[in-house]
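Quick entry, no commentary yet.
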Amino acid sequence: MDQKTLDALLDTITPLVETEAYAKVLIYGESGTGKTVLGANFGEKVILVDSANGWVSLKNHPDVLHKVQRIEYKGLSQLDALSDAITEGKLECETLVVDEISSIAVMDLDTVLKSRSAKDPSKDPNVPTQPDFFANTERVRRVISKLLALPCNVVLVAHVREDKDERTGKVMTRPAFTPKTRQTIVQQCHLVGYLTANEIKKDEDDTEYHRRLQVQPTATITAKTRIGGLPTVIDAPNLNTIFADWKKGIVEEEASTEVIPEPDGPTIESDESNDVISLEGE
């Protein structure tokens, strides 16, 4: 090996204790469970890419609102340019929140269909076909991979979907993506959490919401954590608290004491086209 090649190789080696950790998170759940607030409260300098006016919920949280700058979503090329700006240090960002990445995936299918229909007069501009779904999935997958590689915290917000396993009859709770897109995100994220909110009425005029974030997978719920010592479900979750010690590199791996049932076999998912179509109704 010549010296130039060796020097190039050595430049890629960095002691892990000197490497800054950035959290990569996917939070999914029903509308109104507090996903946007949970993500926007992570860090002090937050950029929120907003595709569905989810930012209005932050008006109820002035302590979070002052930390956030909003970008109205315009397309995947915008996310691509945003990624470049953050990577090159031209835009200061501690945490990037993309709300909602599942809706963005559906909107891009419209973009793909419009573009392909314009090139093919015989194509029905209102009916996507399998090649449209494949192109949409690949476009979204590439942008998400680029986002998750950014030198900052990244929080992806998504809807939830339920699929029935025809073999076992179980209802599977998952982020609302096509299988390939979901696999890309889950593999690259440090934390995948299913957020729920239960309404608790104290009296006629006073209602509290009990929020819970499931971060350990069960037989029917998609979740994941690379953060040692977390319980299966976190009450009143706060990403700052969850990642505080982990980002300093001082969290020790701990085995959960709770028994998690394992899936008893592979689940049957609908094909790519059905996955995307089903998202349009959410």
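second:
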Amino acid sequence: MNRSAFNVLFLCTGNTARSIMAEVMLNAMGQGRFKAYSAGSHPKGVVNPYTIDLLQKNRLATEGLRSKDWEEFARPGSPPLDFVFTVCDDAAGEVCPVWPGQPMTAHWGIPDPAAAEGSDEYKRKAFFKAYNQLQHRLSIFVSLPMDKLDRLTLQRRLDEIGHSKE
């Protein structure tokens, strides 16, 4: 794969936390090599406030973030996708739209911090843990030598990243 910028879509069910974090983080970490997007199979319509708070505390851009339906990225005229990653267990079992251009896909499941119940501190810790897992996986992803890997090797590496621990 050799392109100036790769389009990456992160999918989850509600598109309020993990997929949003991954979108923002990859856009920052990718330094122009990647253009990240996020969407959900059943978007909640709002971004979780804990997500916004954590991203802002890490000095990452939050302007314009919104919870989107994944159908937005399967329509004609949408950005051609190079990679599609599911970041939650629910979306991995769902039937995804057919993505034009046959992007590479992998499942990078991370427990849902938005499902955490308890004190404010407990919820913040759940979001922080998800953020750290994503940061670890994305740092591996951005370091892959895309132009030197054949499709089969790249797919294997993407799958390995989904099983990596922080």
